[in-house]
Specification:
8 helices, mainly alpha, 217 residues, single chain, two-stranded antiparallel sheet
Length: 217
Amino acid sequence: QPCQMLARAEPRGIPELLPRILHTVRFIGSHSKYYNTQERIAGLLTKVSNEIINRCAAKISLEEIFEGDVDASMRDLSDSVAAMGAWRRAYAMERLCTARAGGSGVWEFADTGIFAYVDAFVKRCRDLLDVCEGQVQFARKQGATKARVPSFGGASGPDIMKGLVEIERAFEKQIHQLRNVGYAILDVKATRWHDDFSAFLRAANDLELMTQNLISS
């Protein structure tokens, strides 16, 4: 039953479900004739990790991120990061309680495998938060509206406004490239993302320098 509730949960509602799930796993490890081994319990906890990732991924809209409607996306990404952190903390607390009760037994295993994809998914969410922040900074996008290009007076005003538009176009080109990478971005097994996102960051750093030069002007 608690896993059925997890299968319907949104990221913000996941943390409150975790203690009950872990208590149930602990009970299984203590009383089951067939699941009272380290390998079985570790496998069960890994499945919970995978389901939490699935629920968070289902809530994140890549379409909204790349279109620039980033307010809701940034909330969903932040909620997903928070859910992953809550899962790690709840697991650590349950493991500690098990050890204090003298029943560590089947919980005496390395948790690297349980959280490998969790940590990778958190990193992917933070990367996408950077993309959202770039949409706000370079493309004037936030919510369902787009801010106006600011007006500048003086003889150099038109050149400054032109420079801002060029920065925006260059950023949109980078967004287009990320949008068409040809694999599922939220799939943490898609390791090509590291190279594609690194290229995006390098381009964003160049655009940031161009923006600083315009501000100085």
